[in-house]
Write a structure and sequence with these properties.
Blueprint: E1 2-3, E2 6-7, H1 8-31, H2 37-63, H3 71-95, E3 96-97, E4 100-101, H4 107-132
Helix pairs in contact: 1-2, 1-4, 2-3, 3-4
């Protein structure tokens, strides 16, 4: 899937990746005693979950165009990123009170976010393999 000749999936993935990393950093700051970081981490988690949906949809469209030898790496990428999405969505539920952050930090939400970051890191590595090893989304392999 392309926009003005540029692949859309790589354009979109930076937003949830950055927001989820910031959410986990906010959790660390919360544990360090910075109370204002807790609602910010909630906001970053929520925005990351919302923005991951179009990024994943664009990735699914790109999956159909992959060379056969790239499919096993793509399946690992999708599984790990799906796990990260699930972990951060779970974290969002655990840290939410309706449409706002819980008034006090929830360790279970932080643990789910940390698990999400680990899955996200491994999944992003696999995504990098798709681009740099197989040329997915590049001009060399449309």
């Amino acid at each position: 899937m392309r926009l003005f000749g540029h692949p859309i999936h790589p354009m979109l993935v930076h937003f949830p990746v950055a927001l989820w990393a910031l959410a986990t950093a906010g959790d660390a700051l919360t544990l360090a005693g910075v109370a204002a970081a807790w609602p910010l981490a909630w906001l970053c988690t929520a925005a990351g979950v919302a923005l991951a949906i179009p990024a994943m949809a664009a990735g699914l469209v790109d999956f159909a165009a992959l060379a056969e030898e790239a499919v096993p790496v793509a399946l690992r990428h999708m599984t790990l990123i799906g796990g990260a999405f699930t972990a951060y969505a779970t974290s969002l539920v655990l840290r939410s009170d309706g449409l706002a952050a819980l008034p006090s930090p929830a360790l279970s939400a932080m643990a789910a976010g940390l698990a999400g970051l680990l899955l996200l890191t491994a999944g992003a590595w696999q995504g990098g393999q798709l681009v740099y090893r197989f040329g997915a989304g590049t001009s060399a392999r449309r």
